[in-house]
Design goal:
The protein has 339 residues and is α+β, with helices and mostly antiparallel strands. Helix content is 29%, strand content 29%. The protein has three domains: 63 residues, no CATH class; 116 residues, no CATH class; 105 residues, no CATH class. It is elongated.
């Protein structure tokens, strides 16, 4: 009973998202059913876990469509609860670490809202190239629990297949920035994402809100050295900003110029990596960013990018190494929550 008291103290923080007390009690009942259910049969599993009568099946369905529950307020209340209640969020230089990613979930229903034909951009050969399903994007915050890290989900939305206006021309990158905005965070964060989000839209959107971006960069990416100072009398026109083009892949070839260090990647021991950090201009946004080139003895090479020039290269590698925790969260959601 003591555990349920603590559980309800946390859930009661979500009361502000419900316009009526009855709505909040239905919300609490649904969350309790999800907490203790032993199968994955949707609303049926909640009814069975709580020992409810059959007539309450339709009542729970009505609750999920009720306008008395405000989704935006619920998201804000949940984010506020996580940041206040979680005992140990991961922080780098005083900033919490957020991880973002997209997932495409196959669906077999013929009339499910938001289901469309989706193309898998992932390079994994275990996934089919095209599926019918939901395309979601999610953001989580990294937290510690004993010696492990977990991605605590903050927000997830279907971002393809649901059209509210034919004038909405936003891309998935624009919607990810909007999803970050919807969290209503007052403190500045580090936002960690994979190579799909290494674009000018994401960099501008993240920096414009006071956050920093840590991401993987594709091997064919290029950057620029700062233009050398002009010699002699100034020539007419705007001064040059970009100097020589640098193909980042070429910097991986000279491993003798790299430093060696124990691998900071989560779960790795007795592994030595080679790395090199270089600050270059990123053309789409016109600012200096830090690139970290990493050569792993078994996993190959990768190029990481960070908009914080003051962040240590080893710390950048460690932070990006924790990005896979959102993949674990996705897998758990698919297996236990039927995302």
């Amino acid at each position: 009973m003591e555990l349920w008291k603590q559980w309800f103290e946390v859930v009661s923080r979500l009361r502000k998202a419900c316009s009526r007390t009855r709505t909040f009690m239905w919300l609490s009942a649904c969350l309790a059913g999800m907490t203790v259910r032993g199968d994955l049969l949707g609303v049926t599993s909640m009814v069975r876990a709580l020992g409810l009568e059959e007539k309450y099946y339709d009542r729970i369905l009505d609750f999920f469509h009720s306008p008395a529950l405000d989704l935006e307020k619920l998201t804000g209340a949940w984010v506020e609860t996580v940041f206040e209640v979680h005992p140990d969020l991961l922080r780098i230089k005083g900033r919490p670490v957020l991880v973002g990613d997209g997932i495409k979930v196959a669906k077999s229903g013929k009339k499910m809202p938001g289901v469309k034909l989706l193309h898998q951009e992932s390079e994994s050969n275990t996934k089919p190239e095209y599926i019918m399903g939901h395309s979601c994007q999610a953001i989580a915050v990294l937290g510690r629990a004993m010696q492990s890290f977990f991605a605590v989900p903050l927000c997830c939305r279907i971002h393809e297949g649901v059209v509210f206006s034919n004038r909405d021309q936003r891309t998935l990158l624009d919607k990810m920035v909007a999803l970050l905005d919807s969290l209503g965070l007052e403190e500045q964060c580090y936002f960690v994402a994979d190579a799909y989000y290494a674009s000018g839209k994401i960099v501008k959107g993240v920096l414009g809100r006071g956050h920093h971006l840590v991401t993987l960069v594709r091997k064919n990416a290029v950057a620029y050295e700062p233009a050398p100072p002009p010699q002699g009398p100034r020539r007419p026109g705007r001064p040059r900003k970009y100097g020589a083009k640098v193909y980042l892949r070429s910097l991986l070839e000279g491993t003798e110029a790299m430093q060696e260090a124990p691998s900071p990647v989560y779960g790795e021991k007795s592994v030595t990596i080679r790395f090199r950090a270089i600050d270059l201009l990123l053309r789409p946004v016109g600012i200096m960013v830090r690139f970290v080139l990493v050569v792993h003895p078994t996993r190959g090479s990768m190029i990481l990018m960070c908009t914080d020039l003051g962040l240590d290269p080893i710390e950048i590698v460690r932070v990006y190494g924790l990005r896979f925790k959102i993949e674990v969260a996705f897998k758990q959601a698919l297996r236990t929550s039927m995302l």
